[in-house]
Amino acid sequence: MTHRAAHLPACRQVEKGKVENTDKKRILVIDDEMSPRESVKLVLKDKYIVSTASGAAEGIGHMTQNPVDLVVLDIQMPGMDGITALQEIKKRHPETEVVLLTAYGTFERAKSAMRFGAFDFLEKPFNNDDMIKVVERGLKRKFDGEHLRMERDELLNKARSLEDQVSNARQNIIMSYEGTVKALIMTIDAKDHYTFAHSEHVARLSTLIADALGLTKNVKDKIKNAASIHDIGKIGIDENILRKKGPLTADEFSEIKKHPGIGAAIVQSVPFLEDAIPVILYHHEKYDGTGYPEGLKGKEIPLNARIVMVADAVDAMLNARPYRDSLPMGTILSELINNAGTQFDPEIVDLILKGKVSLK
């Protein structure tokens, strides 16, 4: 095809030596009376491709094989009347506009038929100019509607594309988050293998406590991730202090007390780890306000930190430390009871004592 031919209007062969412009809009006239049917065709045929049918059933059948843009439909016909035909056309071809033709005595019926989707109506005998104008307006509404639908579909496609992009970006962030958390855990492991294993256990136990409290999955995930790196600040503490088998001196304990602040400073520069900062910073605060680093009391301590505080202490008692063996379950439960309201949040301790959180 030449460049010029590509811009010619779409046509189809109708008989030898003649072509028909298929860009023309298609009109179907349905009327059981030949005279008005042919009159409408005569008025419209120069501008549109006009087909005719002598009854509703014939016209609807024609539309199945040859879709049209607008139907001029007589309201008073034997067999299937115009109102019934209108409803059937709108059911099968909702985007096709319908103009009703009314005769004497059917004017009110035509008006009421507008609620079934007719675009407009004309009275017989109709004025030629009125017929042309109402058909033009009907076709304009049809193609304006199609244009709006195309714009809507385009917007929906763009919205779906944006949703996909957001979803992919979210997945990338999650992967970055998980990768960063794993890297931090490996850093802890390189410094102190005990602390690494301990963090895994605390993350599991914290999730169980959060579940028993009825927290949402989103919150539980944040607590789990924060718990898994709650001791990240210990990478800034001297290994000799971390691995010391005997009691710590006052100076050594002062050094240990720095790890929450060190940990918070480490993750502060990672935007998607900001939810972990309260846990890292406050998991050594005590319910009675005697903890560190800020001496927060009761509900002043963020809930996530209170959860990890209990999980941290329980796991420390469940497992052997460099300076002592693991404690029996009875001793652990006694410690929880004795320290509820002083070191630990009593509500969380109560959940454990009632068996809603398994320590095994």
Number of domains: 2
Lateral strand order in the biggest sheet: 4-3-5-6-7
Q: Give me the strand/helix succession.
A: EEEHEHEHEHEHHHHHHHHHH
Query: Into which percentage range does the β-strand content fall?
Result: 5-15%
Which radius of gyration do the C-alpha atoms yield?
40 Å
- Residue share in helices? 40-55%
The quaternary state of the protein chains shown equals: single chain
The first-level CATH class of the largest domain is given as Mainly Alpha
Number of β-strand runs? 7
CATH architecture of the largest domain: Orthogonal Bundle
Biggest sheet character: 5 strands, parallel
The structural class is alpha/beta
CATH superfamily of the largest domain: Hypothetical protein af1432
Describe the global form: rod-shaped
Count of runs of 4 or more consecutive helical residues: 14
> Would you tell me the overall average pLDDT?
84
Residue stretches low in confidence (pLDDT < 50, at least 5 long) are 1-21
**In whole angstroms, how far apart are the ends?**
79 Å
From the structure above, extract its key features.
single chain; 360 residues; alpha/beta; Rossmann fold; Hypothetical protein af1432; five-stranded parallel β-sheet; rod-shaped
Short description, anyone?
The chain has 360 residues and is an alpha/beta fold. 54% of the residues lie in helices and 9% in strands.
